[in-house]
């Protein structure tokens, strides 16, 4: 998979999200001075997972959003929730529990 200079910036920033924390597409976008959609697109094409922890990037309000290019449902979302759970982030009904406490802001 080909990557771009922009995507590499997104991946470097995402590597800073600590284990047991999440950030949002919006927070990551603000730190990079871009749009949440651009961040999501980069994450959907992340060739470095799980070294670049795209599973730690969620939608506003704690909805776990998408994973591996799939948004909102299916096996990939269950996998994202399981990865977060292994790191101590609780997900119920597609949302991060205690979202404000585990939110990482750049």
Structure explained in plain terms:
The protein is α+β, with helices and mostly antiparallel strands. 41% of the residues lie in helices and 11% in strands. It has a two-stranded parallel sheet. A two-stranded antiparallel sheet has the order 3-4. A two-stranded antiparallel sheet has the order 5-6.
List keywords for this structure.
Arc Repressor Mutant, subunit A; alpha+beta; globular; about 10% strand; single chain; about 110 residues; two-stranded antiparallel sheet; two-stranded parallel sheet
Secondary structure: elements and pairs:
Elements: H1 5-14, E1 23-24, H2 25-32, H3 36-44, E2 57-58, E3 66-67, E4 70-71, H4 75-86, E5 91-92, E6 95-96, H5 99-102
Parallel strand pairs: 1-2
Antiparallel strand pairs: 3-4, 5-6
């Amino acid at each position: 998979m080909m990557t771009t200079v922009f995507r590499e910036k997104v991946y470097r920033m995402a590597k800073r999200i600590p284990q047991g924390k999440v950030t949002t597409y919006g927070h990551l976008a603000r730190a990079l001075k871009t749009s949440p959609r651009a961040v999501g697109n980069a994450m959907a094409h992340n060739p470095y997972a799980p070294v670049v922890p795209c599973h730690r990037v969620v939608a506003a309000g704690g909805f776990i959003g998408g994973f591996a290019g799939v948004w909102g449902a299916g096996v990939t979302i269950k996998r994202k929730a399981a990865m977060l759970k292994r790191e101590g982030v609780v997900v119920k009904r597609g949302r991060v529990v205690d979202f404000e406490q585990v939110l990482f802001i750049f």
